[in-house]
Design a protein that fits this description.
Shape: globular
Number of domains: 3
Helix content: 55-70%
Number of strands: 0
Number of helices: 22
Strand content: under 5%
Distance between the termini: 52 Å
């Protein structure tokens, strides 16, 4: 039988050098812009290449990599020949290995042409119809008409195909959320989650590393689906999914998933006004993460704790947690940073501190941090860019800078065709309530009119 085990791409890892996966991904995106390409490269993608899961990049990535390393070929970069992955050779081995772990890069990308709404539809369809292998994708319900979880076969050994498909589902959800927000994804993403837990129940014979990966991926998928519920305003659903992830982590003794679950639980509790719970969950996350050798993860958890203290009006506790967050952040990225943390850089640090300042009523300080977040944010993370601009608009409105708030609000509306997030829409609605009694200038009036028109169109849709 032909071996299908992924072989790490050590050549590509050496080319990354001392840069973290996130830093290297940023360099890839910069190189893409230099030649007119746009690729959705993040730390997760770099990790997949280095792990050998992507044996040959798609054509856009090929052009970018050859631009970054002039004079080298794909083989020089550690990749397999395209025909051995996509051509007859791969089809000839399909019967012997129906669910290979390493496939050509399936990540959707924008060629640089066409409008963004079309790209949005393409990406959503890709999530529903793509997958690492047809058998595994079908078992995870990533089809256009997914089968119910009850359709999963009875007790059997769950293998590489199912685990790889589950890991790919997590990556695709995160990629789509980065670009488009949660509202259009939540209900579709819940089906793979149900099937993932059915696989956990069915795969009673699974042992060792495969079982660990299955539990970890099921937990991460529960967190991802929980976040989609959270961001789309379904707080009870989110709470349930985060609790499910935490239970899975505890069963598997996976401290990484446990820390992630506590991190998101703290975030949710803060948004729901349960500030004491937000503090306790963040502290529990820090205990789980203390042996994971990731200062950036500890920094994010300190920021979650700061958010809880700010909600309680405890300025001293908030300032102490913010100081710890900055100290930990300045230690820099690490190869041990969790894959899901690719979003956490200087822009998110600034945004989260701005949220703390806003909760304490320091609106001008909050606006300064939110502005830094918008300036520093990579436009690849469209949803976060819209969120930061919405936070800036609210902070400016609360601080009395009405024209500037209206201008920031217009920038948010520019992105709302692509981003679907009830969280951001709710922030804009709150800003409108602040501005309505003060409709004095042309800038404020233009924003209010456009927002009303956009809201009416969304309601009709």
């Amino acid at each position: 039988m032909v071996s299908t085990r992924a072989v790490p791409n050590l050549t590509f890892r050496r080319l990354r050098g001392r840069r973290s996966p996130g830093e290297f991904a940023a360099a890839v995106r910069r190189a893409a812009r230099e030649i007119g390409e746009q690729v959705a490269c993040d730390a997760r993608y770099v990790g997949r290449v280095e792990a050998g899961e992507i044996r040959c990049p798609n054509y856009a990535y090929e052009r970018v990599f050859l631009h970054m390393f002039p004079g080298l070929t794909l083989a020089d970069l550690g990749f397999s020949a395209r025909e051995s992955v996509r051509g007859r050779a791969s089809r000839a081995t399909a019967d012997a290995a129906p669910a290979p772990a390493a496939l050509p890069d399936p990540t959707p990308m924008n060629s640089g042409t066409g409008d963004m709404s079309e790209e949005s539809d393409v990406r959503r369809r890709a999530f529903m119809t793509g997958g690492t292998a047809s058998m595994a994708a079908a078992s995870l319900g990533i089809g256009a008409a997914p089968a119910p979880a009850a359709a999963v076969p009875g007790p059997r050994r769950v293998g590489e195909a199912e685990v790889s498909a589950l890991e790919e589902a997590v990556r695709r959800i995160r990629l789509l959320d980065d670009r488009h927000g949660a509202d259009g994804l939540y209900r579709r993403a819940a089906q793979p989650l149900r099937t993932a837990y059915a696989l956990l129940d069915a795969g009673t014979a699974t042992r060792g590393a495969t079982a660990d990966r299955l539990h970890a991926s099921a937990g991460e998928l529960a967190i991802s689906v929980g976040w989609l519920a959270h961001d789309s305003g379904r707080f009870d659903d989110a709470r349930s999914h985060y609790a499910e992830a935490l239970a899975t982590a505890r069963v598997a003794n996976d401290l990484g998933v446990e820390a992630h679950a506590f991190c998101n639980t703290s975030f949710l509790a803060r948004d729901a006004g349960r500030y004491r719970e937000a503090v306790r969950a963040a502290q529990a996350g820090r205990r789980a993460a203390r042996d994971l050798a990731s200062p950036r993860l500890l920094s994010l958890l300190a920021l979650r704790e700061a958010g809880g203290w700010a909600g309680l009006g405890e300025r001293t506790g908030c300032e102490q947690s913010l100081g710890q967050a900055h100290t930990l952040f300045e230690r820099g990225p690490s190869d041990t940073d969790p894959e899901w943390m690719s979003f956490f850089g200087e822009p998110e640090l600034q945004a989260l501190e701005g949220q703390c300042r806003a909760a304490l009523g320091d609106w001008s300080a909050a606006a300064r941090h939110a502005y830094r977040a918008t300036v520093l944010q990579d436009p690849h993370f469209t949803r976060n860019l819209a969120l930061y601009r919405a936070e800036l608009a609210v902070d400016l409105a609360r601080s009395g800078s009405l024209d500037e708030a209206a201008a920031a609000g217009q920038q948010v509306l520019d992105l709302m065709d692509e981003v679907q997030s009830s969280r951001i829409q709710g922030m804009l609605a709150g800003m409108v309530r602040v501005l309505l009694p003060k409709r004095r200038t042309a800038e404020v009036g233009a924003f209010l009119d456009r927002h009303a028109s956009t809201a009416a169109m969304a309601h009709r849709a």
